[in-house]
Amino acid sequence: MTTRKQHTARITGVADTAMGELPGSTAMGLHAEATTAALKDAGLTAADIDGVLCGYSMTMPHLMLSSVFCEYYRLRPSFNTAIQAGGATACIMLANAVALVESGACRHVLCVTGDNRLTGMTRDGAVAALASVGHPEFEQPYGMSVPAAYALVAQAYLHEYGIGRDELSAISVAARAHAALHPKAYKRDPLSLAEVANSRVIASPLRLLDCCLISDGGAAVIVSAADAARDTRKPVRVLGSGQGHTHEHIMAAPSLTDFGCKTSSAMAFAQAGVTAAEIDVAEIYDSFTITLLTELESIGFFEKGEAGKAALAGDISLGGRLPVNTHGGLMSYGHSGAAGGAFHIVEAAHQLRGEADARQVAGAGLAFVHGDGGILSAHCSLVLGQE
Amino acid sequence: MTLPLPSPNADSRPYWDAAQQGRLVVQHCATCGTVQAVPRGCCGNCQSPALEWRDSALRGTVASFSVVHRGPTAAFRDSTPYVLALIDVAGGVRLMLNIIGPGREEVQIGEEVEITFEPRGEAGFQMPQARRITA
Ligand SMILES: [Zn+2]
Q1: Cα(B53) to centroid of ligand 1, in Å?
Q2: pLDDT tens per residue, range A15-64
Q3: Euclidean distance between CA atoms B96 and A322, whole angstroms
Q4: pLDDT of A105-141, one tens digit each?
Q5: How far is the CA of B89 from the centre of ligand 1 (A)?
Q6: Class assignment of domain B57-135?
Q7: CB proximity list for A227: less than 8 A, separation 6 or greater
Q8: Domains of chain B: which residue ranges?
Q9: Which of A151, A200, A252 is closest, CB to CB, to B66?
């Protein structure tokens, strides 16, 4: 692997909207609300933004979403485009924003996401739309849903490592305990291992409470050039980034137990000049319990087959060896499409700034953020640090 | 509600045409010998356009499976529970198929299955599927 110089870009503004069921919200309205809050967080104005990156919306599918948003919010950036990489979108947007400010093309890049996929469409509509990541000829005609595709990964994992039900359930339970500490989290009621184990089967071995939420919400992250970040409120450093892409369709994945997160995280760690063991807090894409389990292991935080045991032992909870998804993740905080992955970035910035209130990881100086899109198809990892 | 049918294109038509005759065919690269599941206009290993179709034996091994209780669309919700599986077929590629027939929910990873063809829709379009081998 060629050595890449550490990044110099800063995250200067982060914000997310209210989360969960937001009747009356719209995709563009959530984009706008998140943008206004992120600008305020940074101490910048709309006129400072010279680059805009949008993701995608399921309630408002559009060929030119970023142009629609710039018109909506009256932004006239010198760089403007939309990025679509499923759950990896937010991290890949951030990686692109970093490249834009480090190349000198932009000073302040707004990465903005949002979708009202809970109240703006039916649950059946959302499930059907998501299933379109399956191959139209070779997967969809066989009834592949996203949970069913992840279930294939989970079944292979259980077969390989022989772990028990509680080791999967522990992932959901840990997320819920963190969400209980976040006033904005969508699901904050206590959750037990038994409740996860007894929830209905969606696609064996995955049960309802192995699956992430569907929520309305939006998030925005502003990335600035190092010199442009100086007069912002409280910047956070981007130290390393990396991507890994091995397949789109699960039938074409080179392995069912090893994924592109291995490559993407190795790149990000190498660029940042740190190891997995030095990370204080991790915010990792958790569309399903199995997603987080395989990613924690592939990235190198835990040995193969051990992440579930670690979760049961409290290792990924606040106060544990590596607190993971301190906001509650997609499992309990919320999942609003491209914004779902952005919530992880927002939380990492809060942790590094010491602004995570009851969820604060003491002395959090290095954070790891990871997004995955498709069926563990597209991966993007980030290493963030204190200013 | 009827289950969806694939819409073959120029890349994939030979695969589906063969299925209508009860054959499972796999794309081989004449240049490097790679076999590939999703049909393409070039080899997914060496990018050579010199591809040929070869018949696969109608056998395979279960790489993974899931008993699906919540279908993605109304048509699939009418057929739950159904078994979604990844099958490593004898011809050297991994396909997504359903396990159909008796005992399908008891299937295990590593089990050998036979490839069969199941008619779908009014015209009886033949879909490659997998079935447990009964002793
Ligand atoms: Zn070839």
Answers
A1: 13
A2: 999 999 999 999 999 999 999 999 999 999 999 999 999 999 999 999 99
A3: 37
A4: 999 999 999 999 999 998 888 888 888 899 999 999 9
A5: 19
A6: mainly beta
A7: none
A8: 10-55, 57-135
A9: A151
